[in-house]
Design brief:
Chain B: Pfam families: Proton_antipo_M. The complex is a heterodimer of chains A (about 150) and B (about 500). Chain A contains 5 helices and 2 strands. Chain A has about 150 residues and is mostly helical. A two-stranded antiparallel sheet of chain A has the order 1-2. With about 500 residues, chain B is mainly α. Helices cover about 75% and strands about 0% of the residues of chain B. Classes of the chains: A mainly alpha (about 150), B mainly alpha (about 500).
Chain lengths: ~150, ~500
């Protein structure tokens, strides 16, 4: 695999394994996120696992590299995540139901077949973004002050 | 609109989140904060009106049935406190726009204030004891941000102490809730109250009552747990101090008021007597502190402690009259403390120091500031017809009615000494030979005075309009005297 990123140290094994392990971890995070609907998992765990994939990149390379790959302001990510969660929960206000009341139902989707869709998933998406955002903000802040 | 009790929480929450998207655009931050806080006030006024009309409003989140889901309960007490809080935050934001430097404001100031508002309003509204802990954490975390704002060495030192005290008391809070859950098996406050009545509060619950007293007492600064307050409150910038002094200790007081009327009302000869003695000791300590210092900030900070003592004495007597006095005085004290802190902020801005020896003769150049302060000081001490009077009158009468002679006298003598301590500021700061001042905010006096003046005007109206406010206070006290009203409102079948 061609690596366009300039290397600082000579951890060949760590760096080359990171380049593909990161994606496996990320896929696992996505799996955990959706599994959380009925089984162990969810936005919080998914977010943490995603953050761990990013931290692995951070360890193998450095902060600059991570910024180059994902030019995201993690503080904004936290804000967007919170906005999604709060707005999902307040959606109930439009129907004059108590705050946080969720809606769900079964739909026949192409490719997936009969699938349960639940607004709690949107709330969890917000949680996911907040967890990734907060974890990465903390780690970057600590890392930069060294 | 069944979600009405939620609006004073939801508006600051959404505002705080939206403000996080553009932390560096100050003009937008200011205008969005002001507008949204104003909307919160409007929503809360409508809430008070609805509670007046329809009685206690409840909403159980997520449509779960009541003892299992988290209930938000707006009775008149919580609605009035939420209204007072939102009003204060509005005036403090207005004041901060001029008082704080751009650098201060850029460090998430308005965001932290919105989350503080969310936390305090939430703690006043929630009907679930664990949820109350969560809201305590929300406003505590915001207060950690606010207390270090500016990052001076003294602030870092004091915020470390503040953090440590609050982390310990939060841990104790969770443990206490866990004990209560272990005994009662419920977290819904209405359900807990009902079950404690059924088992007639055995000894273990009195122990838990004392633990709650320690938890809320640490936040509310009662004797002997007040030790962290004078140091920590000295360091943050004045608008932040106004928020802390007016709101944070009062949430602790509210916690005691709620738990001691709703949960632990069956063994009063132990729990309430203990509370009464501690409240009187708090008054004494606060008065001694306020008289001993020659620093305007410290004088007012010790007066916070005095007020906490007075209110809690009213709570400990537990008669209808003394509770009305306590609620009346609680709201009065929130308003007047914020107003006084904003006023001395102007004085400090003019003089460039908070020591009385660096001030003098201010009334010559700043007559409006002087007379506004004079009225506010009289109101704090409780001179009729200003708002401190009626609350203290009810507390004292309640005390005599319950056959206590010591308490009412302590409250009365403390009023006199409080008056003396705040008049010190007037005599030494406004009278005497005028000095030439070179404080950094001299030229902003007019802009800073406007919100402070508005707050003082509100307390004057609150005092003169007692006749109009009394029915609301009376309705606020109903569920405190008779917890079944609260229980029925939450656990009703529908």
């Amino acid at each position: 695999m061609k690596n366009p990123i300039k290397k600082h140290t000579n951890d060949v094994i760590l760096e080359s394994s990171t380049t593909f392990i990161t994606f496996i971890i990320f896929l696992f995070a996505v799996y955990l996120f959706f599994a959380g609907h009925y089984t162990p998992g969810g936005g919080f765990i998914g977010g943490l696992v995603t953050a761990s994939a990013l931290v692995l990149v951070l360890l193998a390379f450095d902060i600059k590299t991570l910024r180059q790959i994902l030019p995201i302001d993690y503080k904004q990510m936290t804000a967007v995540g919170m906005l999604i969660s709060v707005l999902t929960a307040s959606g109930a206000l439009l129907f004059n139901k108590p705050f946080f009341t969720h809606a769900h139902g079964y739909f026949n989707l192409p490719l997936f077949g009969k699938t349960s869709l639940h607004t709690a998933m949107l709330f969890d998406l917000g949680v996911y973004l907040v967890v990734v955002g907060v974890t990465m903000t903390i780690i970057q802040t600590i890392g930069e002050s060294d | 609109m069944i979600n009405l009790p939620l609006l004073p929480l939801l508006i600051p929450l959404i505002t705080g989140v939206i403000l996080m998207l553009f932390p560096n655009r100050l003009r937008l931050q200011r205008s969005v904060s002001l507008v949204s806080t104003f909307l919160t006030i409007v929503a809360t006024i409508y809430l008070v009106y609805s509670v007046r009309k329809d009685g206690i409003l409840t909403v159980t989140l997520g449509s779960w049935p009541a003892p299992f889901g988290i209930t938000l309960v707006s009775d008149m007490l919580s609605a009035l406190l939420v209204l007072t809080t939102s009003l204060l935050v509005f005036f403090v934001i207005w004041y901060s726009m001029y008082y704080l430097s751009d650098l201060h404001q850029r460090f998430y100031y308005y965001i932290a204030v919105q989350f503080l508002l969310l936390g305090v309003n939430g703690a006043f509204t929630t009907g679930d004891i664990f949820n109350m802990f969560v809201f305590f954490e929300v406003f505590l975390i915001s207060s950690y941000v606010l207390i270090v704002l500016g990052g001076k060495p003294a602030q870092l030192r004091e915020s470390l102490k503040y953090l440590l005290i609050n982390v310990i008391s939060s841990a104790l809070f969770v443990m206490t809730v866990a004990f209560l859950y272990g005994v009662i098996g419920s977290l819904s406050m209405a359900d807990i109250s009902q079950k404690i009545t059924e088992i007639n509060q055995p000894g273990i619950l009195s122990v838990i009552a004392v633990l709650f007293l320690i938890v809320f007492g640490l936040k509310g600064a009662i004797f002997p747990l007040y030790f962290w307050l004078p140091g920590s409150y000295q360091v943050p910038p004045t608008p932040v101090l106004a928020l802390f002094g007016a709101l944070l200790t009062k949430v602790g007081v509210y916690g005691i008021l709620r738990t001691y009327s709703l949960f632990f009302s069956h063994q009063q000869q132990f729990t309430h007597q203990l509370l009464g003695w501690l409240a009187l000791a708090t008054i004494v300590i606060g008065v001694i502190g306020a008289l001993a210092t020659r620093d305007v900030k410290q004088i007012l900070i010790y007066n916070i402690i005095v007020a906490v003592g007075v209110i809690l004495y009213g709570v400990s007597v537990m008669t209808r009259q003394s509770l009305e006095g306590a609620v009346f005085y609680l709201i009065h004290d929130m308003l007047i403390k914020a107003a006084l802190f904003l006023l001395i902020g102007v004085m400090i801005g003019i003089a460039g120091s908070s020591r009385l020896k660096d001030m003098g003769g201010m009334i010559k150049d700043y007559p409006l500031l002087g007379w506004t302060y004079f009225i506010a000081a009289l109101s704090l001490a409780g001179i009729p017809p200003l708002s401190g009077f009626i609350g203290k009158l009810l507390i004292v009468r309640g005390g005599f009615e319950a056959g206590d002679l010591v308490g009412p006298f302590v409250v009365l003598i403390s009023s006199l000494l409080v008056l003396y301590s705040v008049m010190q500021i007037f005599i030494r700061g406004f009278w005497g030979t005028p000095k030439t001042y070179s404080g950094p905010k001299r030229h902003l006096t007019k802009q800073l005075l406007a919100p402070a003046l508005a707050l003082v005007a509100m307390t004057v109206l609150y005092g003169i309009g007692t006749e109009a406010v009394r029915p609301l206070i009376s309705q606020a006290v109903d569920p405190l005297v008779d917890p079944t009203l609260y229980i029925q409102a939450v656990l009703r079948e529908d």
